[in-house]
Each structure stands twice: as structure tokens, then as C-alpha cells.
Amino acid sequence: MSFGSKICKALRLAGQCAVWAVLILLVVLTAYIMICNMQGKAAVVFGRSIVKVISESMEPSIHDGDYIIIKKTDCSELEAGDIICFYSRDEEIFGKMNTHRIIRRLDDGSFVTKGDANYDEDSAAVTADNIIGKYEGKVRFLRWINSFASVKKLILAAVVVIMSVTAAFEVATIAKVSAEYRAKKAEADNETAVRQAIDREKHKLYEQDHADNKEREDI
Fold first, then answer.
1. Which of 80, 70, 78, 79 is nearest to 135 (CA)?
2. What is the pTM of this model?
3. N or C: more exposed end of the chain, with fewer CB within 10 A?
4. What is the Cα 184 distance to its own chain's centre?
5. Domain boundaries in the chain?
6. Residues 6+ apart with CB under 8 A from 124
7. What does the chain look like in DSSP terms, one character per residue?
8. Four-residue CA torsion sign, 8, 11, 17, 20
């Protein structure tokens, strides 16, 4: 095997390892985020909190089942209109994560909040020590993953992923074998052409030598 072939093989192997590493990382992160939210905790990933919304109180801005990104923010920078995630002090959902919009700041520094779809303001003000952070956006990939909640759908998704990855590797293998075959065929064709050229030259020399001998005999 030539040095170039070894380099190509090493690069292909590195690419395959990178694909598997990314897939494994995505699976681990997804599992971590979902487990944390099942336990009523915010999953912290790369300095951001990922929270699952479990109510329709922020429709139409945020939907039930959305996974949202929460950025830790200095409470002094928060103002009316900001959407924040916090541990609620309302009696019905005391201690649970809630995501609502700030309506106003009170003199003691706490915040009055309200869901966009709610008629009434939250009964308990939100204090700085209960604030997780400010809403920054959604993770749509996780909502899609969450749609495969049933066992059958998860199995189907796993089969599709495995088959897709296997098919990609098979295509790469076929391309490799095809390239090696073409290279060997080109090398064999070149050797054949060289042999034919040598045979033609030998035959030419033989004919020339035969003609010279005949000419000497005639003399």
C-alpha cells in the first residue's frame, strides 16, 4: 500500500470516528436534557439552561412542549417585556420552573410576571434568587426528538439512523474498492501496453536481422 493510500485510509477512519463521536454526543446531551427536565430541573449545557415548557400560558410566543434556551442574566438588567424562567412561588406550582413575561418591577426589586395567554398576573412576585435566567430562543431539534416519545417511534428512529450510517459507510467502501480496481486496471493496461511495445520492437529487430541475413546470402 502506497503512502498516499495510507493517508486516505487514515482520513476516512478519522471521518468515521468523528461522525460516531458527534452522534454519541448528541444522544448523551439529549438524554441529559430530557432527564433533567423530567426531574423538574434546568439542564445546563455550554453555559445555557435548557428548559421544557409544559403549559400553554405563553402562547403564541412559546408553545407547550417547546424546549427553550435560558441565559443567566444580571437581574438589574431585566425590564418589563423580558421573558424570564424562574422557580415559581405560586401555591399551585410552588417550586416548579415557570416561564412568563415581566410586567413591571416592584420597589423591593422583585418582578410581577404574567403569561401572555393568561388574563391575570401571577399571584406571587418573582425575587432575584428564584430567577434562572432570561429567555433567549428555542431548540427545535429537541421538540422534534420529543415527538418520538413512544417506544415504537424510538425504535423506528434508531433503525433509520443505524441504516443511514451503515449505508453511508457501504457507499464509501464501494467507492474505495472501485477506485482501487480502476487504479489496478490502469496499471495492468499500462503493463500490457509496455509488453506489446517491447514485442513489436523485438519483432521489428527480428525482421531486420532476417532481412540482413538474406541479403548477405544473396551476395
1. 70
2. 0.59
3. C
4. 38
5. 11-147, 161-218
6. 88, 89, 90, 91
7. --HHHHHHHHHHHHHHHHHHHHHHHHHHHHHHHHHHHHTT-PEEETTEEEEE--SSTTTTTS-TT-EEEEE---GGG--TT-EEEEE--SSTTTTSEEEEEEEEE-TTS-EEEE-TT-SS--SSPBPGGGEEEEEEEE-HHHHHHHTT-SHHHHHHHHHHHHHHHHHHHHHHHHHHHHHHHHHHHHHHHHHHHHHHHHHHHHHHHHHHHHHHHHHHHH-
8. negative
Q: Which residues pair with 44 in a beta bridge?
A: 49
| C-alpha cell read off for 12 | 476516512
Q: For residues 29 and 25, what is the distance between their CA atoms, to the nearest angstrom?
A: 6
Class (C level, CATH) for 11-147: mainly beta
Task: Give the position of cell 424562574.
Answer: 86
Q: Please write the tens of the pLDDT for every residue from 28-68.
A: 787 788 788 778 788 888 889 999 898 899 999 999 989 99
Place of cell 424562567: 85
